[in-house]
Design a protein that fits this description.
- This protein is mostly helical.
- It contains 20 helices and no strands.
- The protein is globular.
- The two termini are 33 Å apart.
């Protein structure tokens, strides 16, 4: 599950911050990629929740009927955070097409950019996860990764072919890779037939599949989750229309719509219990996707202002900036702390959980920030190897100029 917007991340002008995106485009006179304030913050907080979920999950055995104190049950819904990532990914990818007649700008170009943005940090995290899994802590009850694991996960085929995982968080990356391949087709359906037809075309077969299962509740396996999760991605794609909508539509109370849409899901989950909720994720995922989409639409339209202001604060925005790296590498680090380090110092249960929060959480965040500097940010700033080399030379020249006690030439700094 990626957690990133399109690979380009231009600086957002004051005009773009103050006005709807289409007005910002008219003010500048040139079409530009839209950076919507607040979305990075949502992504960062969702990634942080996934880290907390895994700290909880591997400390207390018995999931979903966990041995953890009941007041910690709020941390057990890591799956819904990944669903949120998928909705947010669909929304973010569709922002630019929403302004350009729902066109992707070329299938090959889109897929190349997605691969350039997603694969380098993923492959680096895969190598790190393999080393940790082989040398320290196996990431799966199926045992250490095998040669098949290297091949399957290297090709990002884990949602189609099963192999012992080197990193339990990687399942969603396979799902999202398949959805990326389908994205141009989804845009075509949206352009030709509209948002309602697109949503129905993807969602109704999934609903029919669920109703046809035993007890109308499909049992999910280790893979083949993309068909089930495609509707939540499509919900995000359809919801992105709000960024290019009229001011009347943008001013609708999307945050309150999100609360109203989430209320039935929350009530049913609370009355049935957390264990029931986890066992019925097939339906919960579909039911909660509209509320997630409306929440993202609310943030994208700048409301509620208090939430958008919080999401746009420097720490939260910075967390969102390297949230993909955090998602990719945190789990092996958390497992090393829980399985290898904590038993040497604290007792199982709550002492291990507190120890893990105190050690694994900051280590994961710091390691992810460092990891992103090397394996993620260069691919976000640049579109090609030549651009990356030129960028590296420019930064090196600027640094050398500073170290030499003189300011870099304006042109060198600009390039």
């Amino acid at each position: 599950m990626t957690i990133s917007v399109d690979s380009s991340r231009p600086a957002t002008s004051a005009v773009a911050l103050a006005a709807p995106p289409q007005q910002a485009e008219r003010a500048s006179g040139t079409p530009a990629r839209r950076q919507v304030p607040g979305l990075d913050g949502l992504r960062g907080l969702a990634a942080l929740y996934v880290v907390l979920f895994h700290c909880w999950l591997y400390t207390f055995p018995g999931y979903p009927d966990s041995s953890a104190p009941a007041w910690l049950d709020v941390l057990m819904f890591g799956r819904l955070a990944v669903v949120f990532f998928l909705v947010l990914s669909g929304f973010s990818l569709a922002i630019s097409p929403a302004f350009h007649g729902w066109r992707s700008g070329g299938v090959a170009r889109f897929l190349r950019r997605r691969a350039w943005r997603i694969l380098p940090p993923y492959w680096a995290a895969l190598a790190m996860s393999l080393v940790i899994s082989w040398a320290l802590v196996p990431a799966s009850h199926f045992g250490p990764p095998t040669g098949a694991s290297v091949l399957v996960y290297g090709l990002v085929a884990q949602d189609m072919v099963h192999a012992p995982t080197p990193n339990g968080a990687f399942w969603s990356i396979g799902v999202e890779a398949e959805l990326y391949v389908l994205f141009p087709l989804l845009l075509l359906l949206r352009r030709r037939f509209g948002a309602v037809a697109l949503t129905a075309c993807v969602t109704l077969p999934v609903v029919a599949l669920g109703l046809a299962a035993a007890h109308a509740n499909p049992v999910e396996g280790e893979n083949w989750l993309a068909p089930h999760l495609a509707p939540v991605f499509v919900a995000g794609v359809a919801g992105a229309a709000v960024v290019a909508a009229s001011e009347r539509v943008r001013r609708l109370p999307w945050a309150w719509f999100a609360v109203l849409a989430a209320a039935p899901v929350v009530v049913v989950g609370y009355t049935r219990g957390s264990v029931w909720t986890v066992h019925h994720y097939f339906w919960v995922d579909l039911a909660v996707a509209p509320a997630m989409t409306m929440l993202i639409a609310a943030v994208a339209t700048g409301r509620p202002t208090g939430l958008v202001r919080l999401l746009s604060t420097r720490p939260v925005r910075a967390l969102g900036d390297f949230s993909y790296s955090l998602y990719l590498i945190h789990l092996p680090l958390v497992m090393v702390v829980i399985r290898r380090v904590a038993p040497r110092f604290v007792a199982p249960g709550m002492p291990t959980f507190c120890f893990t929060l105190a050690l694994a959480l900051p280590v994961s965040v710091l390691a992810a920030w460092l990891f992103s500097r090397v394996f993620e940010m260069p691919f976000k700033r640049n579109r090609s190897w030549s651009s990356m080399v030129a960028d590296g030379r420019s930064r090196w020249s600027a640094r050398s100029a500073r170290d030499g006690g003189r300011r870099p030439e304006p042109q060198a700094a600009e390039n």
